[in-house]
Amino acid sequence: MKAQRKKVSIGTSISYLYLVILSIIAAFPLLWILLSSVKSKGEITGNPTSFFPKEITFDYYKIVLGQLSFTTNIGNSLFIAGVTTLLTIIIASLGAYGVVRFFTKFGKAMTRVLITTYMFPPILLAVPYSIIMGKSGLMNTRLGLIIVYLSFSVPYAIWLLVGFFQTVPLEIEEAGRIDGANKLTIFLKIVVPIVSPGIVAVAIYTFINAWNEFLYSLILLNDNSKMTVSVALKSLEGQEVLDWGTLMAASALVVVPSVVFFMIIQKKIATGLAQGSIK
Predict the structure, then answer these.
(1) Cα–Cα nearest to 272, from 157, 195, 191
(2) Which of 262, 150, 264, 265 lies closest to 213, judged by CA?
(3) Which residues are CB-contacts of 255 (< 8 A; sequence separation ≥ 6)?
(4) 99: which of 50, 107, 108, 160 fits an S-S bond (Cβ 3.0–4.6 Å)?
(5) Phi and psi angles of residue 108, each rounded to the nearest 5 degrees, phi first
């Protein structure tokens, strides 16, 4: 027994050590960006291999938020990602509930067809989307970009939420009907609270994808006042004289909120995905 315990403890220690090393490797680029963004102007170019800053300064953040108007780009991304997430939740929740309760056989085939949209790479659909948005008068508009994002997020969200709605017992809804509740009341006050972990997981997934998306925001938006943070960050690389401090500060403003947000709600994502897999 003691020998087995020693083997288990040694194996566990090696596993933890391996995970710690992987975590350090994964976190190193983010830590490098954060430390480089607070270095002085001459320190990055004079001694680029130094890890810790000799003097901490927030001048680069003042340049990014003040002179480059990065706050406008952040606001654009928050608006587009927020509206996309809200509409996706509404459409996907109603669609998944309809598939489970009203169109069982047809719904299963439809969800399989919807998920096949992820087989196509985004670059393959760039030209068709550009033509459609141009003819619809939605080119260089936030609405056009939101519609494109919905076309990708809604199919996956419906497919994912179907598994959650299938876990809701039909007897609960029948009890609500006996108490005099209509279909909308049953859906909002009985069904939605039960599948809320799945809705949270879908919302987080949709928001992060819309926040980080680059290709279509680059193609469909050409106005600086409507540009998202991902495109604004990429535009800094196209300057004649690349200021690494400014680039690092802008990168930190884009990446850090997503990382912090994901760390806070990662347990809810895991719980939601685990519950959705039980059918």
Answers:
(1) 195
(2) 150
(3) 30, 33
(4) 107
(5) -65, -45
* Alpha carbon separation from 247 to 54, 71, 223, 233 (Å, rounded): 19, 15, 20, 7
* Residue environment code for 238-265, b if the CB has 16+ CB neighbours within 10 A, otherwise e: eeeeebbbbbbbbbbbbbeeeeeeeeee
| DSSP string covering 201-250 | HHHHHHHHHHHH--HHHHHH---GGG--HHHHHHHHHTSSS--HHHHHHH
Closest by alpha carbon to 246, among 74, 64, 68? 64
Contact yes or no for 56/118 (Cβ under 8 A): no
278 vs 37, residue with greater confidence:
37
Q: Which two tokens stand for residue 201?
A: 């997981």
Contacts of 65 (CB under 8 A, 6+ apart): 71, 253
| Burial group, residue 210, by CB count within 10 angstroms (0-12, 13-18, 19+) | buried
Cα distances (Å, whole numbers) of residue 228 to 15, 175, 219, 232, 255: 41, 47, 12, 6, 13
Over range 233-239, report the average pLDDT. Answer: 70
Cβ neighbours of residue 251 closer than 8 Å, sequence gap 6 or more: 33, 37, 233
The encoded tokens of residue 8 equal 């288990």
pLDDT value at residue 276: 45
